[in-house]
Amino acid sequence: MALPKHVIQFAQGNTTIYEAMKDYYFHALAEDGEEVHFSYDKTKTLAEKDKIMHKALFSEIGRISNQPMPEGISVEQWAGNPNFVWATFATVNMLIDSIIPDTLIKDIGRYTDIRTVGFGETATFDIVPNSLFTTSRGSNARRTTFVQKQFKTSKTLVPENHAITVETSLYRMLSGEESIAEFVRKAVISMQRDMLFNAYDALNALVENAKFPQALKKAGYDKAKLLNLCEVVTAYNNGKKAVIMGTASALSKILPEASEGYRVIMNSDNMSIQLIKNVFGYDVIVMPQVATGHNFELKLDDDKIYVLAPTSDKLIKGAIEGTTLTQHVDYNDNANLTATATFNKRYIFEAVTNATCGVIELG
317: which residues sit within 8 A by CB, 6+ positions away? Predict the structure, then answer.
């Protein structure tokens, strides 16, 4: 996907380092065995790309600070320049912004409408009625019948600040001993995980709300309940096709059914049993799990199956302020010559929709 407008504006037309950061990030995901939906350069190794990033970083910092490092000056001496330090973290901010929110699409894009807003701005979502007009029987002598008018409403989301404070050896980072690309990658993953938590929490809050229609909440699984829920969700979303979503563990409890056989891949050297990808015309989508970071727990509920229509109004709305801001403590102010930086990113996710969805509680 294209770089955010504020990153392009910051780069003043030369987006090489920011494109390289995206390439590095998705290459690293592929190396970790994750499914990547974006292309990346496969002709270079991550180590080679790391060196390219380091060299490009110095060039970009020099441009931003308007103070290229003079010849004969060592890195440790130049790192004491406050303009140089400021430009370093300003560039890191843009490197982070070049990747988010692209990283979220593959995980929550099916049910989340994500909008990026400018600094200090809010996101307003228009919610139009999902109902149809009533058709009534009228006589030949009447000019009008039952008069109807539909009104849309709107919901404004105000991004909330979230912060990450990290400590890094600026000297080692600038000297190339610590990877700037890996530093940015970890910051992106950390922010992404928290955004995923917010989106998942909003989805669960929706289906667990006391006002959620009981007709759309099924206790326990059987095929008839699942198909009925798919039909209801499709019908009440005006024909927009429902899909079945859940974690791999949740879906494995219902698909495939042992009594009806399994989806076995035979035409390969390595036979495998897989989840059924389509049930009576309804696609099945696996929701990737996310680590909570506590006692090896996972975030998503393995006892919930969601039925929703992705082509209808998205269930969750997200607003992300495009600009990442950083406050840093100069490394000369710390006795151990480390730089402390706090990355501030503003975002919010809420359940706001006119669409119909359902949930099966496996229990």
Answer: 112, 113, 115, 123, 125, 155, 157, 349, 350, 351, 352, 353
Residue with tokens 């009806």, as numbered in its chain:
260
- Predicted local distance difference test score (pLDDT) of residue 202: 93
Task: Write the single-letter amino acid at 230.
Answer: C
Distance, in Å, from the CA atom of 207 to the CA atom of 139, rounded to the nearest integer, reads 44
pTM of the model: 0.81
With residue 232 as reference, give the H or E element that holds it.
helix 223-236
pLDDT confidence band for 330 (50 / 70 / 90): low
Dihedral sign, Cα of residue 85, residue 88, residue 93, residue 96: negative
* β pairing state of 325-329 and 278-279: unpaired
Token pair recorded at residue 127 = 């919610």
Give per-residue pLDDT as tens, 214-232. Answer: 999 999 888 899 999 999 9
Nearest Cα residue to 49 out of 21, 30, 29: 21
Question: How many CA atoms does the CB half-sphere of 278 hold within 13 Å?
Answer: 4
Q: Nearest-CA neighbor of 305 among 230, 227, 359?
A: 359
> Does 283 have pLDDT greater than 70?
yes
Mean local confidence (pLDDT), 330-340: 62
Per-residue model confidence as pLDDT tens digits over 94-125? 999 888 877 777 778 888 999 888 888 899 99
Token pair of 196 as six digits: 């995923």
The structure tokens 């209801």 sit at 232
DSSP for 154-217, written as a single string: EEEE--EEEEEEEEE-HHHHHHTSS-HHHHHHHHHHHHHHHHHHHHHHHHHHHHHSTTS-GGGE
**Cβ atoms within 10 Å of 139's Cβ, excluding its own:** 6
Question: Which of 341, 352, 361 minimizes the C-alpha distance to 184?
Answer: 341
Calpha distance 87→1 (Å, rounded): 26
C-alpha 358/C-alpha 117 separation (Å) is: 31
Residue 77 is encoded by which pair of tokens? Answer: 């001496």
What percent of the chain is predicted at pLDDT more than 70?
A: 87
Q: Containing H/E element for 227?
A: helix 223-236
Q: What is the pLDDT of residue 327?
A: 79
